[in-house]
Amino acid sequence: MVDRRSDDLSPRGTVQTTAPDVQEMIDFAARWKPYCGAADDEIFTTFGVRPRDFYLRVAEALSSARNPLPHTGLRSYCLERARRHRADRL
């Protein structure tokens, strides 16, 4: 598991936390896609976000990527997974 916290202090003396690296999220989603995605708890413990939010962030990042070719099909896969997570909650 990757530690997302930063021990650096801001000028005001508060601890700064950093958002998960988007590229790391894309790589994670691509790695798990052949297996129908990672387990929900794996996504949460690795990135600290709900699976639906994870898949939406990856899809958004891929839609604005300069070179999305290495991940062809991943954006639509992530949008579908996010839609399913929403449907599961209704």
Identify the strand order in the major beta sheet.
1-2
Beta-strand content bin: 5-15%
- Ends: how far apart? 31 Å
Largest sheet: 2 strands, antiparallel
Structural class: mainly alpha
Number of domains: 1
Total beta strand runs = 2
Short structural summary:
It is built from four helices and two strands. With 90 residues, it is mainly alpha-helical.
Could you walk me through the main structural features you see in this protein, from its secondary elements to its overall organization?
The protein is mostly helical. The chain has one domain. 53% of the residues lie in helices and 9% in strands. It is built from four helices and two strands, in the order ββαααα. It has helices spanning 22-32, 40-47, 51-63, 74-89; strands at residues 5-9, 15-17. The protein has a two-stranded antiparallel sheet. The longest helix is centred in the C-terminal third of the chain and has 16 residues, at 74-89. The radius of gyration is 15 Å and the shape is globular. The model is unreliable at 1-19 (pLDDT under 50).
What are its keywords?
90 residues; 4 helices; 53% helix; 9% strand; globular; disordered N terminus
